[in-house]
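Help!! Second protein's tokens look totally different from the first
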Amino acid sequence: MTLRLVSPDRKLFLIADEDDLKAVAELYKLTSKQKGNIRHCSAGLVWATAAATAMTALSAKRSENFMLFHNIYG
């Protein structure tokens, strides 16, 4: 499943694999912890529960203001 990730400067990135995430991380100079937070943020796509949605919102606050597209325009 491709992750649709929106950057703080409102650019949409399609993340299909680890290489895509690495490219975005390099572009925005993210730390490994920040990349991990974005990975955690994407876990909400796998779990379709209210608890996962709340966890995804919390993760977005910890991932340098990157947000999942469906949380913005859902």
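Here's the second one for comparison:
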Amino acid sequence: MQRYVHADLKRIRRKKSHFIVLLCIYLIIALIAVYNCSTGNLKEFQNMANIIAGTLTIYFGIIVFFAVFSADTRTRTMQIAIGSGLSRSQVVWSKELEGLILAVVYDAIAALILCLVPVIFHAGLPTSFFSAIAVSTIQSILETMVFYNISMIVIFATLHANYAEILYIMFSFEIITGIFTVLFGYLNTQFGFPDLSGILFSSLSASFFADPWNNLLNIVGIAVYLILPIYLSQMVFRKKELEF
């Protein structure tokens, strides 16, 4: 499994288009930070930095998902790995590990840029700014992995990336979350059903990071969102007939 993960990450690193897109995003983040800090527009910089850190799920999450799965489903690398002796569960966990490594590294670099630039320019930002960036980055990583894991079920059920990529994009732009929020609100007001919007991952995550000590039970919900899709991916993959 370790060799499979290493080979996949090596393939992703060698892809020039992947590297160029990443470089462009980091350059844009750095330019925004440098411009605002050099001109002394610290209030706007803090607002922009918090927005960037809170939306890493969109641009880096999409890049990670495409990088891990697009080439694999096209070249049938997963089938080859299974033919070489890797179990289906190991393939699922390999993909999970790859996504997690890339999400953590890419998001952490973006957060580092946002934190280093004001330090270099001696902007004198409060400690609360840096902790807010750290919290937003962790939230983005968790959100990325939840959406990644849910979309991964479609990958292993179909062995095609197209529908899963669309699903991830809809999750990252909060389209699906918005649909469920409206649906739960409608059922609550029209039929008196309990308002279930609080069990959505975005609600669990937001309330936990806003006040961790009073929302410790939310950790259980967050863990379910992270782990259950992996189990479902393994289950559907075991039943999937492979085409070599």
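Reply: Different proteins will give different token patterns, so don't panic. The two ends are 20 Å apart (CA to CA).
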